[in-house]
Design a protein that fits this description.
Layout lengths: L10 H4 L3 H4 L4 H16 L4 H27 L5 H25 L8 H12 L1 H4 L14 H21 L17 H14 L18 H13 L3 H8 L1 H20 L2 H13 L12 H5 L14 H4 L1 H22 L3 H15 L5 H20 L4 H21 L8 E2 L9 H6 L10 H18 L10 H5 L12 H20 E2 L6 H22 L7 H24 L7 H4 L2 H28 L5 H31 L15 H10 L6 E4 L19 H6 L2 E2 L8 H10 L11 H12 L3 H9 L3 E7 L15 E6 L2 E5 L3
Parallel strand pairs: 3-4, 3-5
Antiparallel strand pairs: 1-2, 5-7, 6-7
Length: 793
């Protein structure tokens, strides 16, 4: 039995007048209108947005919601039903699409939502789940709706000014994306036409990666006819992001029984970031991607869009967390079946989540065993399912590959924003252990500012030790909170222990952030006196948030604008002081303000201190949004070419022509393999993916980056994986000979030995006009610098 205590919900929080509850739909409806208008501004026609929204609502959310209600046995709070339904619907969509695509009938996956809807119409005992709940406790307060909708609106605005403006749907704005987006687009194209997936830029290499999001977008493209490019950089991540916001709000309320905890969980996850007292900017990459001074797993950075695997995995995992909370509260076969299905979906969605879930579940089992000498059967079952999923993912989906991840303690400290910028700790500079420890201490201090509520979890001790001990001022079950804390703590541990040359260990912290925030919110509820919040306390909280914000901004303003790099200061110790003193001053002022609150014997001084710290951390989010807004005003709101263009002009037009005039199994060859100059001092940057991305076809050799073989080659040659040379030199020589030395023999070798049917020529690399190839292949199309030739039989 789950340890729990009775709840006496404060009237100020629980009671919701009907007239206000009835208006709770207005904020999300307003956000929906703003999103549609914003998407139109960034190149998505309203009919396309409507088509996409209709599919998500009818093909994903509605069947998922009905299944969620049937498993729970009743309709509940509408926000919870819809948010959980989105996660369940996505799981069903992907798990249906994979076998349908493998069977050669991709549209067959639509049978699953059709069958669900038909069953809930035809079966009498299921029809009641079409109706919503009439329970007054399930009405959403207007203020709660405003906060969650506001969070979603800010996330969308951030997406516009940080991502949409530099990732246009047309040339020239689409010619300089982040390096990962063409990679994602290529895999979506392969998922549309093949199962299992291969790396389409290098057709003999398997995809040993978490690829379920590509199956999801491929399914959406089949169902709606929307271009994968539009789905990737405009549409598909939006319901995932909004669904995550809603699920965090739902989980916060479910864990604590109070509304404000749900709102706080969403706000903390997205906007309460590492405090930034420095006046000097971070190194270009950190500033461009919205990464903070010290690693905090921030959700308000470009990875919301540049890593759709993380965004999709976070949504599914939050749905799984809610399903586990539900199953722990009441054990039924249906609930544990749902946990199993969602675990299967998370298995292929993102590699970081299952190890963290296993750690959290084992912590629940261990705490129950130590404190009560009993095993938690549900947690043990879920741990077993998670372990099997982890084995399946590692040895089947990922083929046992590490993809460059290795045990490398404190590697994150070498690539943290501020220390890297001043070269106090960076991979290419000396970084003795003591420097890494300094960075780690500063990082942990920042975490303490973000999640001070974790200290309040000690008040759960009575409910952990005694299943039947009641505390009338609390309504919190211990086991789900321990699970959330264990998930978050394991992410911190993985960040500390593992390392990756591209900083991929940071994804553990990104994945852990929502659950550290949820655990912290529970602690805040435990620290807040009974009967609160009241109007007076709310005013005090707002003042405390403002005080924290003012303190950080003041320290920020008085600091120097000159970066204290070692080469500028002439002393490593001066650079260290430049890193440390802004935090010493900030925490000194915050500590003094907290001491004043304590000395004043304010009833909720602990809550006010936490609010003040949150205000200090909110300042970073405000700075990010202001900086991107200013950049948009000065440099343009859309179609901005932020970095040097590297996608070949004409790629989209020529690629789509080739897609429309070839068969999915046709193999293509190209002479383009590198980003930029292949003869640069560093070597060939092997992340050339955009030809396979826009053609949705497999290539003999386009690039070879982001494959397990490339990572192993890099380890052998002791180079960064993006500069690893191609290992099959004969194949590369045969491929390039057809372009640089066209003849009946060289072109015929591609056709007869490698079964190539098309040539996609980047004429910018040729010393001779590509028309020379016309003697041995048929010219078919030209766009920009791209020429397309077809090889005869």
């Amino acid at each position: 039995m789950t340890a729990t205590v009775q709840q006496r919900v404060p009237l100020a929080v629980a009671a919701t007048p009907a007239r206000r509850a009835a208006a709770a739909w207005v904020p999300p409806a307003t956000v929906a209108v703003l999103v549609a208008a914003g998407l139109k501004f960034y190149g998505v026609p309203l009919p396309t947005t409507a088509m996409f929204a209709g599919y998500v609502l009818l093909g994903v959310v509605l069947p998922g919601t009905l299944i969620w209600r049937a498993i729970r046995g009743r309709s509940g709070w509408l926000v919870e039903d819809l948010a959980a339904g989105l996660a369940v619907g996505y799981a069903g969509e992907v798990l249906a699409y994979v076998p349908a695509r493998a069977a050669g009938a991709p549209l067959l996956f639509l049978a699953w939502p059709a069958a669900v809807l038909a069953a809930f119409v035809a079966v009498p005992r299921l029809r009641r789940h079409w109706r919503g709940s009439a329970d007054p406790a399930d009405r959403t307060p207007l203020w709660w709706s405003l906060i969650l909708s506001g969070t979603a609106a800010v996330v969308f605005y951030w997406s516009c000014v940080r991502f949409f403006r530099t990732h246009d749907l047309r040339e020239p704005g689409m010619l300089s994306p982040d390096a990962d987006s063409p990679f994602h687009l290529a895999l979506i194209g392969d998922a549309k036409h093949h199962m299992p997936l291969m790396s389409p830029w290098l057709s003999d290499q398997p995809v040993l990666y978490h690829w379920f999001v590509y199956a999801e977008m491929a399914a959406t493209s089949w169902a709606t006819g929307i271009e994968p490019h539009v789905l990737l950089v405009r549409l598909s991540p939006l319901p995932m992001l909004f669904g995550l916001v809603a699920l965090l709000g739902v989980l916060g309320r479910r864990l604590t029984g109070v509304w404000w905890a749900g709102a706080a969980a969403a706000v903390i996850t997205f906007f309460v970031l590492t405090p930034m007292p420095y006046h000097w900017p971070l190194e270009g990459w950190f500033s461009a991607f919205g990464t903070n001074a010290y690693e905090d797993g921030s959700s308000l950075r470009a990875q919301l869009w540049t890593s759709p695997t993380q965004t999709f995995g976070a949504l599914l995992f939050a749905g799984l967390a809610l399903a586990l909370v539900e199953a722990m509260a009441r054990h039924t076969r249906g609930r544990w079946v749902l946990v199993t299905v969602l675990t299967a979906a998370v298995t292929g969605a993102k590699a970081t989540f299952l190890p963290m879930l296993l750690a959290g579940l084992l912590l629940v089992v261990a705490v129950r065993l130590v404190t009560r000498r009993k095993v938690h059967p549900g947690a043990l079952y879920a741990a077993g399912v998670t372990f099997l999923g982890l084995l399946f993912a590692q040895f089947v989906l990922f083929g046992g590959a590490s993809q460059g991840m290795a045990i490398d303690p404190l590697h994150f400290a070498q690539i943290s924003g501020a220390p890297y910028t001043v070269k106090f700790a960076a991979p290419e500079y000396p970084h003795p252990l003591w420097r890494l420890l300094v960075v780690t201490v500063l990082t942990v201090c920042c975490w303490a500012c973000i999640w001070p509520g974790l200290l309040g979890l000690g008040r759960l001790a009575p409910t952990i030790r005694h299943a039947r001990r009641m505390r009338r001022d609390l309504g919190i079950a211990a086991d789900p909170v321990i699970l959330m804390f264990g998930i978050g703590l394991s992410g911190v541990g993985a960040l500390m222990v593992f390392g990756h040359e591209a900083g991929a260990e940071g994804w553990f912290m990104v994945s852990a952030r929502p659950y550290l925030s949820l655990a912290s919110v529970v602690g805040l509820v435990l620290l807040t006196p009974r009967g609160l919040p009241t109007g007076r306390l709310l005013r005090q909280v707002y003042c405390a948030i403002g005080a924290g914000l003012v303190i950080l901004l003041a320290v920020h303003k008085i600091g120097s604008m000159h970066t204290p790099k070692v080469q500028n200061t002439g002393s490593m110790w001066v650079s260290l002081w430049g890193l440390v003193w802004p935090y010493l001053l900030s925490y000194g002022l915050l500590g003094a303000a907290g001491w004043w609150m304590y000395r004043r014997r304010l009833p909720a001084w602990r809550t006010l201190v936490a609010a003040m710290l949150a205000g200090a951390c909110l300042g970073t989010a405000v700075q990010h949004v202001n900086e991107m807004t200013r950049a948009s005003r000065l440099g343009g709101w859309r179609g901005v070419v932020q970095i040097r263009t590297f996608v070949t002009p004409g790629t989209q037009e020529a690629g789509r022509w080739l897609r429309d005039h070839s068969a999915p199994d046709d193999l293509v060859a190209t002479n383009a393999h590198c980003i930029g100059d292949p003869d640069s001092l560093q070597g060939c940057d092997n992340r050339h993916f955009w030809f396979s991305a826009y053609t949705e076809r497999r290539f003999l050799v386009e690039g070879w980056g982001f494959t397990d073989r490339a990572h192993r080659q890099a380890a052998e040659d002791h180079v960064n994986a993006i500069f690893a040379p191609y290992w099959d030199r004969q194949k590369l020589a045969d491929n390039d000979a057809a372009f640089y030395h066209p003849s009946a023999a060289t072109v015929g070798r591609l056709r007869d030995e490698y079964h190539v049917k098309w040539l996609m020529v980047d004429e910018g690399y040729l010393l001779l006009p590509s028309s020379w190839i016309q003697d041995y292949a048929t010219f078919r199309y030209r766009a920009g610098r791209i020429a397309v030739y077809q090889l005869g039989e």
